[in-house]
Amino acid sequence: MFSCLQRKTDKSQGAISNAQKADQVSKEKQDANPQVKRQKVAVFGGSFDPITNAHLNVVSEIAHSGLVDEVWIVPCGPRPDKPSLSTPGIERTMMCHLSVESVFSHNFGVKVCDIETKLPRALGTLSLMRKLAKEYPDIDFYFVVGRDLIVPMNDWDDVDYLEDPKGAGKVLVKTEKFLVMDRPGYESNEPLPPNFVPLVLPEGLTQVSMNLSSSEIRKRIANDYRLVQNGASHIDYYACVEGLVPSSVIRHIRRQKLYIPSN
Predict the structure, then answer these.
(1) Residue-wise DSSP of 69-104
(2) Taking Cα atoms as reference points, which of 263, 221, 211 lies closest to residue 242?
(3) How far does the chain reach from its first CA to its final CA, in angstroms?
């Protein structure tokens, strides 16, 4: 299983005590060899409860854009503020791995990163980006965000940003890099800041999009399960999501009996 905290190159295995030292190490390497191209990685975060074909569609379009070298799917850690997220992180991470392995070829630039699911709780976005930068000083990370969230991001809290938890959103918007996706039904003529890169495909190509949420998958399974409980024994309550999530993920959901309502 790919772990962000373990996936270090030989060049970055030395002890790093803080982000400042990591930045200094990275700068020294660039100065020593200015021809070295820094890798660009898109960070695609979410609960992925479960991961759906719509998520994979976004990931593939990011990879096809050529704007980054890799896309990392990053399932969030436990969310006490989100009671609907009850599926353990290891299950959500495993479903992400199964989907990537079954949908994409081995050399397609998509990976799953478990940097958050190993923690007691989810990280704020600013803390996540800084943790990744500290662990991988040779990589430029771009957080994937919808265009409709650019303004609201200024108000995002981050309890792990001890300097100013309530002001973390403003720091996030000013200091980090972003890959911006258009959202169906949302229009804005506001120019993007320099650190926000729009997700566009090469000229002449049309971006493919899907509108499907994880909550819809859970709702469909729960609905058909209740029908079975009420006597509709002919219904396979997992078949209702065929074609909406990878078959490998459906098999895992079925084996682990996930998304069955408790009442």
Answers:
(1) SEEEEEE----TT-TT--S-HHHHHHHHHHHHHHHS
(2) 221
(3) 34
Please report, to the nearest 10 degrees, the dihedral formed by the alpha carbons of residues 125, 129, 130, 133 taken in order: 170
Q: Distance between CA atoms of 259 and 87, rounded to whole angstroms? A: 8
Q: Return all residues near 31 (Cβ < 8 A) that are at least 6 apart.
A: none
- CB count, 10 Å around CB of 253? 23
Whole-prediction pTM? 0.86
Q: Are 2 and 113 in contact (CB under 8 A)?
A: yes
Report the percentage of the chain scoring pLDDT > 90. 74
Residue 20 neighbours by CB under 8 Å, 6+ apart: none
Q: What is the tens place of the pLDDT at every residue in 74-131? A: 999 999 888 889 999 999 999 999 999 999 999 999 999 999 998 999 999 999 999 9
